Amino acid sequence: MPDLGKYAFAVLAAYASSLSLIALLVLISLRQNRRAKALLRALQTKEDPSR
Amino acid sequence: MTLWEYANPVKFLRLSERVLPVLWPLAAGFLALGLIWGFFFTPDDYRQGATVKIIYLHVPAALLAINAWFMMLLGALIWLIRRHHVSALAAKAAAPVGAVMTVIALVTGALWGQPMWGTWWAWDPRLTSFLILFLFYLGYIALWQAIEDPDTAADLTSVLCLVGSVFAVLSRYAVNFWNQGLHQGASLSLDKEENVADVFYIPLLVAITGFVLLFVALVLYRTGTEIRLRRARALQLRRNRQ
After folding, report:
1. Within a domain: B135
2. Does residue B135 or residue B174 have the better pLDDT?
3. Which chain B residues touch A if contact means CB-CB below 8 Å?
4. Which residue of B58, B95, B201, B207 has the fewest CB atoms within a 10 Å radius of its CB?
């Protein structure tokens, strides 16, 4: 761990907040995609049960 | 084979399914390398001390905040001129990514600004234009949500995108236009005198590459989600009519 001195709060808070936001964005995107796929699959099955 | 073929949703999905398995690990790799290199293995700046490590987040995020809007503008123009649904959906998919990048740029900027300028925020031309750009992102996302008919939503959001482009340009060039305020000039420059020192520059380029690859991966992936939702909506409408 590098010595961040009196700037430790600013640097660590910048990394923590940015990485959390990126992780949240990726997780939400994954969840939305999974839901969209499931919804489409369900509708296609209703439309054509042989699928 | 032309680029327009990918305006076909099926071909677009097939392409993104082929590209994404390579793009995700590449983005994660460059991002991890750039940030680890920047955080652990670069020296402090003689004037800014350890706060210079924020550059590896702040500059790539700010760069993408502006360029995501330009990508949306391109999608909006293609929609308005050629009526390709995938381009409108790609613009819609890019908006939350651009908004998050704008928040990261604003938050890291405030955290960097406090120890350097003595204040979290100032009504400086670049900071203010970035805040307005963020509000445009929110407005753009809200407008998509507010309108039920997808083609009308695409039309209106495209017009909003054209208007917001003024602020995207201002965010980029505010420092040059007004030449005042607390924010420094561009960190990346072709002028060797103005550019950041090589010891910071190379890991910064790696981090920027990671952010750009992540942006492309997210937009491809999210556009796929939007295409599927559009298909599901079409199927539901057809069922309701029967």
Report:
1. yes
2. B135
3. 35, 39-40, 49-51, 53-54, 57-58, 61, 96-97, 100, 103-104, 107-108, 111-112, 114-115, 214, 218, 221-222, 224-225, 228-229, 231-232, 235-236, 239
4. B201
